[in-house]
């Protein structure tokens, strides 16, 4: 039997997305001799994305959960955990929080839940039913961390996570992979319809309601009417349930020839090299990994003043903050960079320095590694002998 402790990562679906990307990065980078890893998807996984896992010993399991309560999924997870015998269950977000009791009954000694953002149908965390479920689950977890200070405060104040179970674990970015474009290097990724003289405003992220891409499209349309003298272009990169409707909105505004919505891509670092400004119009966020990638790539960020975005974007230094769901304010902020490329360059350079100083990949991996170590040391007396359950 392998004596390296196993961590089971429980996620709704393994697919292209910020949370999923950073989870895989941590798995790939954590020392192989410290922990083994397995990923359990409540629903299913995208094989193309799963190929981003570079460690050969990582198994991916799918429980094929159906919509609704699906009590059979709890039983299926219990059986799988009994077979895998992990030291840690690490569940992610509201969609997986309810499986803490199944892990406890399966004898998993350490149980962790991470708040990486709220449900897209409840971006501000006001849904009483959801919050009641979160509170109900707190006793079944040894740690309920958040990936932004704003989310940690909400966890403590609204969900009533006690101090000894609360942590803040910031996202990290691979600053080796995401770097500013070298002057003179080819900037346009494959399939990109834009030219070298275009000014490209872009964003990367899952196309769902909480990201509010519709406001970005409206702001872009406003900006084009205000600056007809500039070859403005828009890139929205990512897949999701609202991609088709967003493409329809683009068409209805007559923007098909100046907007590019390619869906999910694996060449995000190169795509960022084709942008001049990065926009983040979300109505709720944790620590925005895509904004950090843009900053590491030397781009100024125009983001909304919600969740963890103000923690990342230093207003007037690395970018600009605007109210959520306000296309007029968003258009005005974007116009500032259109008219002042030297300001864009200065804010982009400051953004990269901020990422290197505060949001390194090594620091993120070390923080998660430290969390697992401290919880296992506290809960596991000797290998195979466990302390009592939920506190």
Short précis:
Residues 16-177 form the Glycosyltransferase subfamily 4-like N-terminal domain. This protein has 391 residues and is of the alpha/beta class. It has helices at residues 18-29, 47-50, 71-84, 93-97, 100-105, 128-137, 149-157, 213-226, 243-252, 268-273, 289-296, 309-312, 327-339, 341-358, 361-379, and strands at residues 6-11, 36-41, 59-62, 88-92, 110-115, 143-146, 166-168, 199-204, 232-237, 259-263, 277-280, 301-304, 319-322, 380-382, 385-386.
Structural account:
Keywords: Transferase. The chain is of the alpha/beta class and 391 residues long. The protein contains 15 helices and 15 strands. α8 (213-226) crosses α13, α11 (289-296) packs across α14 and α13 (327-339) crosses α14.
CATH classification, class level of the largest domain: Alpha Beta
CA(first)-CA(last) distance: 29 Å
Strand order in the largest sheet: 3-2-1-4-5-6-7
Domain module count: 2
Give a short account of the largest sheet: 7 strands, parallel
Class by SSE composition: alpha/beta
- The assigned CATH architecture of the largest domain is 3-Layer(aba) Sandwich
Strand tally: 15
Mean pLDDT: 93
